[in-house]
Design goal:
heterodimer; A: alpha+beta; Immunoglobulin-like; 2 domains; 6-stranded mixed beta sheet; 4-stranded antiparallel beta sheet; extended; B: mainly alpha; 5 strands; about 70% helix
């Protein structure tokens, strides 16, 4: 009986020790938020912090889930490629970018399953359910990769010196301009051995300010006025150019 | 530094690239009297603009380019307002019918197949006919029979036209035809344009040249006049119903296209009718080959976002 009590105490101590080590993990975003201005062309966010010296950091930047309607392409009559049906996705993240120090597969399977593109299979719902989920998600990932919104970036987490059992880490996440306004989540998995021992999360808010914000507000809150204004300015530009060219003797 | 953020498209673009793109399509618009949507929308999608925003914002910029082009052609006496208004009324009626037709086709489940095949056949047929006809015209040299609105010998088609009621003289076009004719052709082009999801300039131009027998230069000016009103309607409707008009994108395109349309009109003035037609025919055939390649070559990705053309 005593033997079992000793084993129980040792296991508990080990778990407490592991938790204490991982509890020291920290993560900070610089800048903490992103502002989209008139001449915005994407930016970078530095993610840095501390993790236990013998651990690896796996970081993921992901967007809110959205509902998407897609067209499925297939061969018609054995010759022509065209749309052969509709398929919908629910809870598909707007963005999904993962950063690791080595290739994610090399770290361990559970990290890949939680933070890699494989995790999308559990996250996204494909409708109708009769569709081949794996195939549809695979093609969807290709589509998002083409847009630069889904990617896995191995060898992008770099580590600093070890002090008091902890080491610093830094990642520079490239934020593409297509990652529009919204709430994003930056999640970090602290991987020790073949286990994820801790998970940290911070929100990253992308907002429009100044001219882009005003124009979006007008387009969504007063769409008729926005449309009429767009037409009037287009006509005015066309007439102005006509007058300019006439004064240059262009159109005679 | 040279980038600007498009708040509705949700992406940034290089200002000079979009300016150049607008200039190029505006040039084609000024020369041939087409809106250029069939070229501009795929190009914008290639530069990372969502399909629905690309199509709607392009309509907005066509308003500017066609205002600029119509004004330039107006000064040259190339706009037949009476003909343009009749075609426009027909086009609006046809567009409304076309939207219903597409609903029925979608319910039948073979809409996409029919649209793709119609697109390729229309482009191929119209492009080939124009190319061969204008080539023959060019070979005949200075005689320029196609510029003449009066055929030497009245064909069966011309006699049939003469039998229609409500005959009226169209001064600018130099033709005397029934008022019903442009109205009917307007409806037919409107139906096709709605089914194919395009403005229809490249169908309307050959219809005006071959079926309404208008001189090529008047065709270009009148087509631009009609496109202007069609695109005003589309821009307001897209902004109101779908919130897909990106005004910043349209403005950047406009800067290029309004200049391009003016230069295009000057180029158009220097070209003969047959030269204009053979160039437009080549353009239509290139788009046809591109469409056909898209249907025959296996795509890299077997799904696509809904929306756009």
């Amino acid at each position: 009986m005593n033997k079992y009590i000793h084993i129980l105490i040792c296991t508990s101590l080990l778990l407490v020790f592991q938790a204490a080590m991982a509890a020291g993990a920290t993560m900070e975003l610089k800048p903490a938020g992103i502002e989209i201005t008139t001449f915005y062309n994407g930016t970078t966010v530095t993610i840095e912090g501390q993790i236990p010296a013998d651990a690896e950091a796996v970081i993921r930047v992901s967007g809110e889930g959205e509902e998407l309607h897609l067209k499925k392409k297939g061969k018609v009559g054995g010759l022509l490629w065209m749309n052969t049906g509709d398929v919908s996705l629910e809870n598909a993240p707007k963005t999904y970018m993962t950063y690791t120090s080595a290739s994610l597969g090399d770290i361990n399977a559970s990290a890949a399953q939680t933070y890699g593109l494989k995790a999308l299979k559990d996250r996204i719902t494909v409708l109708p359910e009769s569709e081949d989920k794996e195939f549809i998600i695979g093609e969807f990932v290709k589509l998002k990769k083409k847009d630069g919104l889904y990617n896995v970036n191995p060898n992008t987490v770099s580590y600093g010196t070890v002090a008091q059992g902890m080491k610093s880490f830094t990642v520079t996440a490239v934020i593409p301009p297509r990652m529009g306004k919204g709430d994003y989540s930056v999640d970090m998995g602290v991987v020790q051995g073949n286990k994820i021992v801790d998970q940290l999360s911070q929100s990253l808010q992308v907002i429009q300010v100044g001219f882009p914000a005003k124009l979006t507000k007008l387009a969504f809150q007063n769409p008729l006025l926005h449309g009429i204004m767009a037409v009037i300015i287009a006509i005015a530009a066309g007439l102005f150019m006509g007058v300019v060219f006439k004064s240059k003797g262009g159109a005679h | 530094m040279w980038h600007m953020y498009l708040p509705i498209a949700g992406n940034s673009v290089n200002i000079l690239t979009i300016f150049g793109l607008g200039g190029f399509v505006g040039l084609l618009s000024g020369i041939f009297g087409v809106g250029g949507g069939f070229l501009m929308t795929p190009l914008l999608i290639m530069f990372g603009i969502p399909a629905t925003v690309a199509a709607a914002s392009d309509s907005n910029q066509i308003v500017g380019a066609s205002t600029s082009g119509t004004l330039a052609h107006w000064r040259l006496g190339n706009v037949d307002v009476k003909m343009g208004v009749l075609l426009l009324i027909g086009g609006i009626l046809g567009g409304t019918i076309g939207v219903q037709v597409i609903k029925v086709l979608r319910a039948m489940g073979n809409a996409d197949f029919l649209i793709s095949v119609t697109y390729v056949l229309m482009l191929g047929g119209v492009g080939s006919y124009m190319f061969v006809e204008s080539l023959q015209g060019l070979k005949k040299g200075d005689a320029q029979p196609t510029e003449s609105s009066q055929p030497k010998k009245k064909s069966t088609y011309a006699r049939l036209l003469g039998m229609l009621p409500m005959q009226s003289k169209f001064e600018k076009s130099g033709v005397e035809i029934s008022l019903l004719l442009p109205l009917i052709f307007g409806v037919l082009v409107g139906i096709l344009a709605a089914i194919m999801g395009v403005g229809g300039g490249f169908i309307m131009v050959p219809v005006m040249v071959y079926l309404l027998r208008m001189p090529m230069h008047v065709v270009v000016g009148t087509s631009l006049f009609q496109i202007l009103f069609t695109c005003i309607n589309v821009t307001v409707m897209q902004s109101y119903s779908n919130r897909t008009v990106d005004f910043v994108l349209a403005l950047l395109l406009l800067l290029g296209s309004t200049i391009g349309a003016q230069v295009g009109t000057k180029v158009s003035k220097k070209l003969k009718g047959d030269q204009l037609k053979i160039l437009l025919a080549s353009l239509v055939l290139i788009v046809c080959v591109k469409m056909l390649a898209g249907l025959l070559i296996t795509p890299d990705i077997l799904i696509a976002m809904k929306g756009g053309h």
